[in-house]
Specification:
The protein is an alpha+beta fold and 95 residues long. It has one domain. The protein has five helices and four strands, in the order αββαβαβαα. It has helices spanning 2-10, 20-27, 43-49, 60-73, 80-92, and strands at residues 12-13, 16-17, 31-36, 53-57. A two-stranded antiparallel ribbon has the order 1-2. A hairpin with a 2-residue loop joins strand 1 and strand 2. Residues 1-58 form the Malonyl-CoA decarboxylase C-terminal domain. This is DCMC protein. It holds the Pfam family MCD. One of its GO terms (molecular function) is malonyl-CoA decarboxylase activity.
Length: 95
């Protein structure tokens, strides 16, 4: 879960999220809301993402501001759950 959070939040290509689905939602102003363990246990889900799925949440009143922040300064809006996992990864990673 920590590695997944880091991949989605911290791994970048030219400053933007490396994952194309994350990049799409973040460009449109979403918040990286929740990472779900074993949410997709189909063979494709296991093969593509070890069964993990991410929820992106849209707060309509914040979408334009979130989108502008992401496109302008590559700032990703994320929930406490995601940020906690990112922090745990950073503290424990040997990468």
């Amino acid at each position: 879960m920590r590695l997944c959070a880091w991949y989605l939040y911290g791994e970048k290509h030219r400053g933007y999220a490396l994952n194309p689905v994350a990049n799409f939602h973040l460009q449109n102003g979403s918040v990286m809301w929740r990472i779900n363990w074993m949410a997709d246990t189909s063979p494709r889900g296991i093969g593509a993402s070890c069964g993990m799925m991410v929820n992106y949440r849209y707060f309509l009143e914040d979408s334009a501001r979130n989108s502008a922040a992401y496109l302008g300064t590559q700032q990703i809006q994320a929930s406490e759950q995601v940020l906690s996992l990112v922090s745990q990864f950073q503290q424990n990673s040997k990468l």
